[in-house]
Automatic annotation (TrEMBL):
Species, as recorded: Mucilaginibacter terrigena
Name under which the protein is recorded: Response regulator transcription factor
UniProt cross-references to PROSITE patterns, sorted A to Z: RESPONSE_REGULATORY
Keyword list, A-Z: DNA-binding, Phosphoprotein
Residues recorded as bearing 4-aspartylphosphate in the entry: D55
Domain Response regulatory: 2-115
């Protein structure tokens, strides 16, 4: 099996290659490729691999631009800190995504899924659906302007501009601009991510989805991790992993 890796962060790429070698020792690893332009040329010069592991946001654009101009004949597993349309669409179509930092068990499950469904990837109708998803990726979609939350037995609405962050514990909580915690009806942060604008909301980790206007500052440490300080609200330290630090900085300063 030939696996192509598309990833612009060298440390993340090295970590991913190490995991792939552990989980699929017989696979031939291609890449990593780090730019849209570089990857387009690679596809022009090489036969398509059996599987692609790809980040969405690359140094010079989004990886979907690579595939939009090519007839795709292989599946993709996204390894990304971004969500938007791709995560929802590719979940529906049984192509997986892994949130950074990539977990070995989750990557292993994605490989099992790939092996079980290899025959589907040869289906022409399925490939047409994938092509349509690429074409429609950049189509604008509305984001929620307010979220329903519970106060006792009552339900009220919190405008997006008053949301400091979403927090996953036993339930999904919304924390507003005053630091008040409200219960929501959402089952996961993935579900919430699809409803908000990724330009101003960031998935800091598996427990926190944070709103840009409420990030006061961040500081790094000797391990490469970042600690965020939130504005006007009291929260536990919000940690950005070393693997996601460069991605966060790019998002924060865009």
């Amino acid at each position: 099996m030939r696996i192509l890796i598309i990833e612009d962060e060298s440390l993340v790429a090295e970590s991913l290659i190490k995991l792939v070698k552990q989980l699929e020792p017989s696979a031939t690893i291609l890449g990593p490729l780090s730019e849209v332009k570089q990857a387009i040329q690679w596809f022009a010069d090489n036969p398509q691999p059996d599987l692609i592991l790809s980040d969405i946001q690359l140094a010079d654009g989004i990886s979907l631009d690579i595939f939009a101009g090519n007839t795709l004949t292989c599946p993709i597993i996204f390894t990304t800190a971004y969500n938007e349309y791709a995560i929802r669409a590719f979940k529906v179509n049984s192509i997986d995504y892994l949130l950074k930092p990539v977990d070995k068990a989750e990557l292993g499950a994605a490989f099992k899924k790939f092996h079980l469904m290899q025959s589907k990837f040869d289906d022409a109708g399925y490939l047409r659906e994938i092509k349509d998803l690429f074409v429609n990726f950049n189509s604008p979609k509305p984001f929620k302007e307010r979220f329903a939350v519970h106060i006792g037995r009552s339900v009220t609405l919190v405008p997006v501009q008053n949301i400091a962050c979403f927090l996953k514990e036993e339930l999904i909580f919304l924390i507003d601009h005053e630091g008040t915690r409200f219960i929501t009806d959402y089952r996961s942060l993935d579900e919430v991510e699809e409803l908000v604008n990724s330009k101003v909301f960031y998935r800091a980790n598996r427990q926190n989805l944070i709103h840009l206007p409420f990030i006061e500052s961040y500081r790094g440490d000797d391990t490469g991790k970042l600690t965020l300080k939130m504005r006007d609200i009291k929260t536990n330290d919000l940690i950005i992993s070393k693997e996601k630090a460069a991605d966060f900085k790019k998002w924060f300063d865009q």
